[in-house]
Amino acid sequence: MSQRDQEKWDRKYLENPALREPRPPLGLIDTWVPPSDGNSHALDLACGTGRNAIALARKGWEVEAVDLSPVALQILTEAAEAAGVLPSIRTEMIDLETFRPPENSYDLILKANYLDRSLIRRTIPALRPGGLYIVETYMHHADNAKKDANPDYLLAPGELKTLFAEGFEILYYDEFWNESYEMYRMRKQAVVAKKLSA
């Protein structure tokens, strides 16, 4: 992570009020993530302002929410405090390009609206057997409204499920248009993958 990347995202959160507005969490959380049994730990990668971390905490999960933007993490902290779930969320500013969490540490890893294939590979060992890895992010499509999107951060058709082809059971996969509250109309992919025992 460069200082420039951090400053870019801090500036986006500071200058764009829409990015600071509360947004619904991923629907996959409601559908696929059960309430905590009292000892469930989640990792929210590139958590932004925390819509998904807060939703998980409301279901009783202990959440580690990581991002490169201290501005986003401050917004998350304030929102979590207002929601009464701040004790269940630990935030950390990290370099996502080198982040490698401890092995067998989480029952759930979640990543939304951010594609880094290397980060997925580096974090898979941190997921416990039987745990879920949930990803929802953007893909290439001729009708995407944001024509200048960096192609490195867009999935090829059908690609997301191939990132979990080994050592996982694919519980759910879909391609669809994004939510109406997002800034640009974009095609997305989502996967829910269950890690198999070694």
The radius of gyration is: 16 Å
DSSP strand count: 7
Percent of residues in β-strands? 25-35%
Mean pLDDT: 91
Number of helices: 7
Percentage of residues assigned to helices: 25-40%
Would you tell me the structural class of the helices and strands?
A: alpha/beta
The largest beta-sheet arranges its strands as 3-2-1-4-5-7-6
Structure overview:
The chain is an alpha/beta fold and 198 residues long. Helix content is 28%, strand content 27%. β4 (106-112), α6 (117-123) and β5 (127-138) form a beta-alpha-beta unit. The longest helix has 14 residues, at 70-83. The mean pLDDT is 91.
Mind sketching the topology for me?
Elements (H helix, E strand, L loop, with lengths): L2 H13 L1 H4 L6 H6 L8 E5 L5 H8 L3 E6 L2 H14 L5 E5 L12 E7 L4 H7 L3 E12 L20 H4 L5 E10 L9 E9 L3
Parallel strand pairs: 1-2, 1-4, 2-3, 4-5
Antiparallel strand pairs: 5-7, 6-7
Brief write-up:
The protein is of the alpha/beta class.
Note the main attributes of this structure.
single chain, alpha/beta, 198 residues, 28% helix, 7-stranded mixed β-sheet
